[in-house]
Amino acid sequence: MGSPRPSSLAYHILSTTLRRLGLGCVDCLPPTAYCLPTTARLLSLLIAIALGVVVASPAPASLAGPRHFEYRIAWNGLPAGSATVDIKDQEFAGAAGYSVRAAARTNAVVDLFWSFRGVAHTTLLADGLVPLRFTYDRQTNRLPESTWLDFDRIKQRAQGTHFKGDQRKDAEVDATDLTDPITAILHACATGVEPGGERRYHVFTGESQYLVALQAVGEEEITVPAGRFRALKIVPAVWKIKEAAEPDQRLHQATIWVTPDSAHTILRVRGEVFIGAVTLDLVGLGVAS
Q: pLDDT grade, residue 52 (50/70/90)?
């Protein structure tokens, strides 16, 4: 069976756009570029990482710095979409906490042959950065998929539910020493990691369990649309836990750059996949609406 191609109209528009941008022709793209479920999964991971790094602050009880972040998404250097992150204060039964919302989407050109819309929302207590709930709703080529994750702090259990089409899958696990992807990054940033240091976390996404190691490899200067910054470079490694921990083959290599100050603002996230790389770059920041 041959590789799928976009419709004749989409093919014509995409081909014309690429030629005008001086980026070659559609036929020069790898055949697998027309169906990219792995890229969607990687984007999910990158958004989760972005959420965690941006929310981190030196004092978990008080969140300093900007509350609204805008990012550009590129695939192999080509504009592919955009993402936003908004952080707001929220109380939970009288306890101070945060509500964080991240949204990502592909742009009009990419939509011609592959579309993605995703919204992640997390709530957590400020004291100790304790996760309460995480939801992730997305559509890939208009096919809906959702993941819900709830933590029971009293029973020390985590309940995950995954919806895809008319299928539902539930998973309940022991929450002792277990965290969600966002909180893992939050703790790493709040406690700090010096160049050469490493932190490891047992992570539950609501669907699967992973062992995540975050290693700070040094500082360097990078340039993103928002400007030029001194950045701390962090390299994560991800192993999926089945009967034993195995490297996650979807993610060949990922790198995170954050400001070395107390705000730990995420500047760039780059993930290598089997077809090139997906990059998240900071465009602007400000006050959440």
A: very low
